[in-house]
Design brief:
The structure is a single chain. The chain contains eleven helices and 13 strands. It is of the alpha+beta class. It folds into three domains: 83 residues, Rossmann fold, CATH 3.40.50.20; 132 residues, 2-Layer Sandwich (D-amino Acid Aminotransferase, Chain A, domain 1); 62 residues, Dna Ligase, domain 1, CATH 3.30.1490.20. Strand 1, helix 1 and strand 2 form a beta-alpha-beta unit. Helix 3 packs antiparallel against helix 4. The longest helix has 23 residues. The radius of gyration is 19 Å and the shape is globular. It starts with a strand and ends with a helix.
């Protein structure tokens, strides 16, 4: 099997994408796969066809890249690829659409509001509806891009930075608590839920939220809370129609010990020190098996589709 890894591009997450792609390539080569590195650019379909690859490993991230854009191209060209399809990737990569889905399925999530730039400029938005502190997020951005913590009315000017990315933007109540994440992997058509882990950093919790400088630790929570997060993660994976791999992030309130779902990631970091691979190793898996397993899940789906046509 010849694997084409599509990565990079021009989105805000291009550098992270390149690091993920390099790690994925090393892991696949160590497992005996032939790998072709393909930088995301114009005429991507033509580039992939000319490369002669059998399947694409999606490592590209960000707006106009891994948000359903590449997935739509690959689907139209009937090129098999890893991860969620175009529709699911589009929903997952839009934080406002995800919030609407969470509310529809009664998944606990921090209180949220939508802010239009016009209402912000005119001063007609009632920030009392969301309360302080809150987190402002650009719906299309991932990682630490397009996100600001607004603690007081004096800091509302920071919203200008978020509007540089998107309009409208998402406002989300800030949960005083700890960050947890649940990884999900499909294996032979079965969803495997990795053990929930706590995301920690050597400095402050704000550093975790806004730089992505994570390490992991065994969770210090009641088993019931851990079970709830793992069950909710599996449910939202199905609700959005995700495939092969995803990571679901939560905040757990220090005061109530209640979990709140923040978001689901369709193309999570796959470096050895990224959250999902670390959680997989914590769950007893090899890093190489995580990376190659995502590929095999996509390949089995492709083979199943071909068999159904005959």
């Amino acid at each position: 099997m010849r694997v084409g890894i599509v990565y990079g591009g021009t989105s805000s997450e291009a550098q992270a994408s390149r690091k993920n792609a390099a790690a994925v390539a090393d892991a696949l080569r160590s497992e005996g796969y032939a790998v072709c590195m393909l930088e995301y650019q114009q005429d991507m379909a033509g580039i992939i066809h000319r490369s002669g690859v059998d399947i694409v490993y999606v490592c590209v991230q960000g707006k106009y890249h891994g948000d359903g854009t590449l997935q739509s191209i690959l689907t139209h060209e009937q090129i098999p690829f890893t991860g969620s399809g175009a529709e699911a990737a589009m929903v997952i990569n839009n934080k406002i659409l995800c919030k609407l889905l969470f509310d529809y399925y009664n998944i606990p999530t921090p209180k949220w509001r939508i802010l239009q730039k016009d209402a912000y400029r005119k001063g007609t938005f009632d920030f009392g509806e969301i309360g302080f502190p809150f987190v402002a997020k650009a719906p299309s951005q991932g990682g630490s891009f397009g996100i600001e913590l607004i603690r007081t009315p004096m800091e509302l000017c920071r919203l200008d930075k978020v509007f540089c990315h998107d309009n409208p933007i998402l406002l989300e109540s800030y949960i005083e608590g700890k960050f947890y994440t649940v990884g999900l992997l499909e294996r032979a058509g079965r969803l495997v839920t990795l053990k929930c882990v706590e995301g920690v950093a050597p400095a402050s919790e704000e550093l975790i939220l806004f730089t992505g400088a994570y390490d992991i630790a065994a969770p210090r929570l009641a088993q019931g809370c851990l079970d709830e997060m793992e069950q909710l993660a599996g449910k939202v994976f199905g609700y959005v129609g995700a495939r092969d791999v995803a990571r679901v992030d939560f905040m757990v309130s220090d005061r109530t010990q209640k979990p709140y779902m923040l978001e689901i990631n369709a193309v999570p970091g796959l470096k050895r020190d990224s959250l999902l691979p670390r959680a997989a190793v914590y769950s007893g898996m090899r890093y190489e098996d995580v990376v190659s397993g995502i590929l095999l899940s996509a390949w089995e789906r492709r083979m199943g589709t071909e068999c159904s046509k005959t």
